[in-house]
Design goal:
Strand content: 15-25%
Shape: globular
Number of helices: 4
Number of strands: 17
Largest sheet: 7 strands, mixed
Structural class: alpha+beta
Strand order of the largest sheet: 7-16-4-3-2-1-17
């Protein structure tokens, strides 16, 4: 049984006039804090310059309030890699700067054990591919068993994976019907980042330009005079603990959608590229720039020949259709923003 946490994220109005939204949270497996996104059936945002419209979602859902962390991913690795890692679930970066925040060791049984670099436990995991993410979703779907076979089925059907004659993935990005957890789809991510049911006043919905409840560019955190309600990690020291900027969050109380990691989405990027050549991504990254977090921008990360490219700063979020409530018998708590932060939560 999951422990449900209902949290009032913020009250009042920011200096920019951005109305704060109450955040509704619950704690799921791996101590992942999920933010509930409601307003099912909302309209899509206005068309972008390519006449694409994003953000319409006809169901309520929960999205991880923080990017998936090193600690959470290492727990997955340690559960299924005791006999080896035949699927390449971990891609070491050979110790380059902050890319290797998870380290692996021979466990003496033909497999591996994984340890997170001290102090990096809640930093977003990077160097993951859609296949490793999908196997983690299958593992969660199947109850997080210490059996690598449980990564083969459930949320995603790995039996259908393959490559075309050019070495491009033919894998579907869509989860299976009945999936309990899945990689955030683009509309789900976009809505959680920019849509506010009270954007123009009570009951007057709309979209913000940035995933910080603002239409002005976020400041670089640590910069002199940075707005604590509209800032993000764009500069040294790059990868930082989740929720480092505690006063900046989306209308639904989702953190680090600006800056931090560049997030892989559950859709192939096909804007001028062949099918399967690249991941669609949203948000900027550790060494990005504030304008890149504008809702009009979407990006790509190469994915080809069974490998991956340019993933050193890429991470992900999990979505689930589960929204626990009092009827489930779970414990309800009302907590403050300070208590919601990482201190004592995901060490």
């Amino acid at each position: 049984m999951h422990r449900v946490i209902m949290a009032l994220v913020c009250v009042g109005v920011s200096a920019s006039g951005a109305s704060a939204q109450s955040g509704e949270y619950w704690r799921g497996p791996l101590d992942i804090d999920f933010a509930v996104v409601r307003a099912a059936g909302n309209k899509a945002d206005a068309p972008d310059e390519f006449f694409r419209r994003f953000g319409a979602v006809d169901y309520n859902y929960s999205i991880s309030a923080f990017e998936v962390s090193n600690r959470q991913y290492a727990q997955f690795l340690n559960s299924v890699s005791g006999e080896g890692d035949p699927y390449g679930l971990w891609l070491p970066a050979d110790g380059r700067r902050w890319h290797d925040e998870i380290r692996h060791f021979d466990n003496g049984r033909g497999g591996y054990r994984y340890e997170v670099v001290p102090g990096k436990e809640t930093n977003p995991v990077v160097r993951v591919t859609h296949r490793s993410i999908f196997r983690m979703m299958n593992w969660m779907h199947n109850g997080m068993q210490a059996d690598i076979a449980t990564t083969d089925y459930g949320a995603y059907d790995t039996s259908q994976w393959g490559f075309d004659p050019n070495g491009l993935y033919t894998d579907s990005m869509e989860p299976e019907p009945g999936a309990r957890y899945w990689l955030a789809r683009e509309d789900e991510w976009y809505k959680a980042a920019y849509f506010d049911p009270n954007r123009h006043g009570s009951g007057e919905p709309g979209y913000w330009t940035y995933p910080t409840r603002h239409d002005e560019e976020p400041d670089t955190w640590y910069a002199q005079g940075a707005d604590p309600e509209n800032s993000a990690i764009y500069d040294w020291p790059f990868s930082m603990p989740a929720g480092t900027v505690p006063g900046t969050f989306s209308p639904w109380g989702v953190y680090d959608m600006a800056g931090s990691g560049l997030e892989i989405l559950g859709v192939w990027y096909t804007d001028g590229e062949p099918y399967g050549i690249a991941y669609a991504t949203r948000g900027s990254d550790f060494i990005g720039f504030p304008p890149l977090d504008d809702k009009a921008n979407r990006f790509w990360a190469g994915a080809y020949f069974g490998g991956s490219y340019n993933l050193d700063r890429h991470t992900f979020r999990i979505v689930t259709g589960n929204i626990p409530g009092p009827a489930s018998g779970s414990t309800l708590l009302l907590i403050t923003l300070t208590l919601l932060r990482r201190n004592g939560r995901q060490q």
